[in-house]
């Protein structure tokens, strides 16, 4: 029997039992949809993480009191005991680091921003040293950036995100307008380009002010985060990081042999840690999806065994007319493979739809990986073939005389 003829017979058999075919497909559909949805979301999260951290530049690293990712309560308590990183630490590094091309510091809090009778709540107020916007690659689309003079004189000027402009300054030229941040007046000197949202939270609802002005309003007790640009990734970055590490230990009087009283993170460290978390999540979800595929495969095998029993007389007639065992084997294998392939195709569409729905609902990034679609279809088909071998072999080994006697 030719492959084309076997494929035609398989499709006819599946179409003749549409409801049974659909119910049989559910296990494969759920398994493949789960895999595709998870891979799409994990791929989107990894792409977002890499883009987000790489936007600072591969040659930028940070010094902070606590790491950006804390995995246990004990670590959190330990890091809380550390001394704050103060503006004096930043100035000490700025004055003594010979490998640093650029250096800045930042603090942040949440505040209410008001203009006239309009207001925006839960806005992030960022206290910036004058080099910080360029270190974070913030593109100023209107107006100007901070200057060293703004920082030295604690000027009441600000750079705003597009949410602030759209909600409080719609229809007017924002440059030169006055906003009140927690009651303090600031003059708008610049507007940053739109950054979009992350996991459903807008990244444009913020106001940046000089760090010196920030500390006059909110105090100097809280820790700052220092951003340092090495000028080049690789060995130059490592050299600058080592120099900053020595300077910070000296400034903070860390005892010889004692661990650092601060955290020094490069982009590769942060991306690697975050990617490891998403991979672990993907592995767990993939294992759960594999269970669904196995269940789906067992259902396919069960239905194919039922089909062999129901079509025993048909198999006997075909063998009596000259069909060989391998022809019968091919026919039933093609049926199970086609059933799984159709289920895989539906599962791929369903998985992508679920991932996109999650993105629309909560803003979680998603990105369809072509390899995952191809792998999903191959795995689904392979599942159908694997679990279809036993029923197909049973059909192929039927004695035609015994099969013809079946009712």
Name a few traits of the molecule:
407 residues; 2 domains; six-stranded mixed beta barrel; Macrolide_Exporter_MacB; membrane; transmembrane transporter activity; transmembrane helix; MacB_PCD
Per-chain topology:
Layout: H1 3-16, H2 18-54, E1 60-64, H3 73-80, H4 87-96, E2 102-115, E3 118-128, H5 132-135, E4 140-143, H6 148-152, E5 157-160, H7 162-168, E6 178-181, E7 184-192, E8 197-198, E9 201-202, E10 206-210, H8 211-218, E11 225-229, H9 235-251, E12 263-266, H10 267-310, H11 312-320, H12 325-362, H13 370-396, H14 400-405
Parallel strand pairs: 3-10, 5-7
Antiparallel strand pairs: 1-11, 1-12, 2-3, 2-6, 2-11, 4-7, 5-10, 6-7, 8-9
Pfam families: FtsX (PF02687), MacB_PCD (PF12704)
GO molecular function: transmembrane transporter activity
Keywords: Cell membrane, Membrane, Transmembrane, Transmembrane helix
How would you describe the overall organization of this protein?
- This protein is α+β, with helices and mostly antiparallel strands.
- It folds into 2 domains: about 5-50 and about 275-405, no CATH class; about 85-260, no CATH class.
- Helix content is about 55%, strand content about 15%.
- The strands form 2 sheets. Strands 2-3-10-5-7-6 form a 6-stranded mixed β-barrel. A two-stranded antiparallel ribbon has the order 8-9.
- Strand 6 (about 180) and strand 7 (about 185-190) form a beta hairpin.
- Helix 10 crosses helix 12, helix 10 (about 265-310) packs parallel to helix 13 and helix 12 (about 325-360) runs antiparallel to helix 13 (about 370-395).
- The longest helix has about 45 residues, at about 265-310.
- It is elongated and about 100 Å long.
């Amino acid at each position: 029997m030719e492959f084309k003829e076997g494929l035609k017979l398989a499709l006819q058999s599946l179409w003749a039992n549409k409801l049974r075919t659909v119910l049989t497909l559910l296990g494969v559909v759920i398994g493949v949809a789960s895999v595709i949805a998870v891979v799409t979301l994990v791929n989107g999260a990894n792409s977002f993480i890499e883009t987000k951290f790489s936007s600072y530049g591969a040659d930028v690293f940070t010094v902070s009191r606590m790491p950006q990712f804390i995995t246990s309560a004990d670590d959190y308590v330990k890091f809380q005991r550390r001394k704050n990183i103060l503006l004096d630490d930043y100035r000490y590094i700025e004055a003594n680091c010979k490998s640093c091309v650029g250096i800045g510091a930042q603090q942040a809090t949440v505040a209410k921003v008001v203009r006239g009778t309009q207001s925006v709540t839960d806005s992030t107020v960022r206290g910036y040293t004058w080099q910080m916007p360029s270190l974070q690659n913030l593109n100023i689309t209107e107006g100007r950036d901070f200057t060293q003079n703004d920082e030295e004189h604690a000027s009441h000027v600000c750079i705003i995100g597009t949410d602030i402009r759209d909600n409080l300054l719609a229809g007017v030229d924002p440059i030169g307008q006055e906003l009140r941040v927690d009651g303090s007046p600031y003059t708008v000197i610049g507007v940053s380009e739109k950054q979009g949202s992350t996991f459903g939270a807008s990244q444009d609802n913020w106001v940046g002010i000089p760090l010196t002005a920030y500390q006059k309003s909110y105090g100097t007790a809280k820790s700052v985060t220092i951003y340092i640009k090495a000028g080049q990734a690789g060995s130059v970055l490592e050299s600058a990081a080592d120099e900053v590490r020595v300077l910070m230990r000296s400034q903070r009087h860390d005892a010889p042999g004692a661990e650092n009283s601060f955290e020094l993170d490069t982009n590769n460290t942060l991306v690697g840690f975050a990617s490891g978390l998403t991979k672990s999540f993907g592995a767990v979800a993939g294992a759960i999806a594999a269970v669904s595929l196995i269940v789906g495969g067992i259902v396919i095998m069960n239905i194919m065994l039922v089909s062999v029993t129901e079509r025993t007389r048909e198999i006997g007639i075909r063998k009596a007319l000259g069909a060989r065992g391998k022809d019968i084997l091919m026919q039933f294998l093609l049926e199970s493979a086609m059933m799984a392939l159709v289920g895989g195709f539906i599962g791929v569409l369903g998985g992508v739809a679920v991932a996109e729905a999650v993105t629309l609902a909560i803003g979680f990034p998603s990105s369809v990986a072509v390899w995952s679609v191809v792998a999903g279809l191959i795995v689904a088909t392979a599942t159908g073939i694997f679990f279809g071998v036993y029923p197909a072999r049973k059909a192929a080994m039927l004695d035609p005389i015994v099969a013809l006697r079946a009712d």
